[in-house]
């Protein structure tokens, strides 16, 4: 396996690099977003990790396809898993929302995700197209948030990352009841055949005060921080999240997002 890493280093990237080297992957941290010419036409499996635009550039250069959740994934989840109202809309329509709302870009980080007093308060560049996909969500109080790396509907590893809005540290201890409830909730989601899941995906879940455990969002593996997850266990999920275009299976194709004009397919 060949792994390309972004020039930008952070804790997750360094942990992935160390794990991949110990697994005897061929690891290359690039100085820029251009793939060295000697890798053109290689037949080895290739993956990449870093900023989404960096990974997309690598994929374009080597005829690779990214596997990721569709923008509408969260909004299509049954309420039993979201425990709040969610909606996929456009930036133009989001700006007409009259009430307090949580808003985040569905693709990339083109504006800051957060709670806004109304849609008109969304701080986003006027240069962004009106049809930029945006996820709106009812404002709730998350007491704890956890990240899961999922491979073929199985949990490879997980980590708590937020407690009452603050990053968790080594002092974090989960109650036995929360452990049981969280585990049962995640497993019920993975076992539900009516819930479509990419073969490799990151799913964040959390506990909403007064409502219980719920899905926060789903993200592509190749750009997600790993927090305190075991990087060795992240590797197979990362490897499955990028596929040679000529090896895409029919089921893989349903998790490919077309970005010809910057919007969802």
Structural features, described:
The chain has helices spanning 11-22, 52-62, 73-76, 79-82, 91-94, 176-191, 231-240, 250-253, and strands at 2-5, 26-29, 46-49, 64-66, 86-90, 101-105, 114-116, 133-137, 142-151, 154-163, 166-167, 200-208, 212-219, 242-244. The strands form four sheets. Strands 11-10-9-12-13 form a five-stranded antiparallel sheet, sandwiched between helices. A four-stranded antiparallel sheet has the order 5-8-6-7. Strands 2-1-3 form a three-stranded parallel sheet, with helices on both faces. It has eight helices and 14 strands. Mean pLDDT is 93; it is low at 261-265. Strand 10 and strand 11 form a beta hairpin. With 265 residues, the protein is of the alpha+beta class.
Short description:
The protein is built from eight helices and 14 strands. The chain has helices spanning 11-22, 52-62, 73-76, 79-82, 91-94, 176-191, 231-240, 250-253; strands at residues 2-5, 26-29, 46-49, 64-66, 86-90, 101-105, 114-116, 133-137, 142-151, 154-163, 166-167, 200-208, 212-219, 242-244.
In terms of DSSP E residues, the strand content is 25-35%
Order of helices and strands: EHEEHEHHEHEEEEEEHEEHEH
- End-to-end distance: 30 Å
Number of domains: 3
Please work out how many helical segments DSSP would assign: 8
Task: Determine Rg (CA atoms, Å).
Answer: 19 Å
Major sheet = 5 strands, antiparallel
Q: Return the CATH architecture of the largest domain.
A: 2-Layer Sandwich
């Amino acid at each position: 396996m060949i792994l390309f890493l972004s020039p930008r280093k952070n804790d997750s990237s360094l942990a992935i690099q160390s794990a991949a080297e110990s697994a005897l992957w061929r690891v290359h941290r690039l100085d820029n977003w251009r793939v060295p010419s000697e890798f053109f036409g290689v037949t080895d499996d290739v993956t990449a990790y870093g900023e989404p635009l960096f990974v997309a550039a690598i994929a374009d250069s080597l005829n690779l396809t990214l596997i990721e959740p569709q923008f509408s994934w969260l909004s299509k989840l049954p309420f039993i898993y979201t425990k709040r109202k969610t909606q996929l809309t456009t930036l133009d329509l989001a700006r007409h929302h009259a009430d307090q709302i949580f808003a985040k870009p569905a693709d990339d980080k083109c504006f800051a995700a957060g709670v806004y007093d109304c849609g008109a308060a969304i701080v986003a560049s006027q240069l962004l197209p009106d049809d930029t996909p945006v996820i709106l969500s009812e404002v709730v109080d998350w007491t704890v948030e956890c990240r899961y790396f999922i491979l073929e509907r199985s949990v490879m590893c997980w980590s708590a990352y937020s407690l009452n809005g603050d990053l968790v540290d080594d002092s974090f201890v989960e109650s036995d009841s929360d452990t049981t409830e969280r585990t049962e909730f995640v497993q019920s989601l993975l076992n539900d055949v009516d819930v479509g899941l990419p073969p490799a995906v990151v799913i964040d879940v959390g506990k909403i005060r007064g409502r219980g455990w719920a899905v926060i969002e789903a993200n592509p593996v190749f750009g997600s921080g790993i927090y305190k997850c075991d990087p060795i266990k992240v590797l197979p999920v990362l490897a499955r999240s990028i596929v040679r275009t000529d090896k895409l299976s029919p089921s893989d194709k349903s998790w490919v997002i077309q970005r010809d004009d910057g919007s969802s397919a």
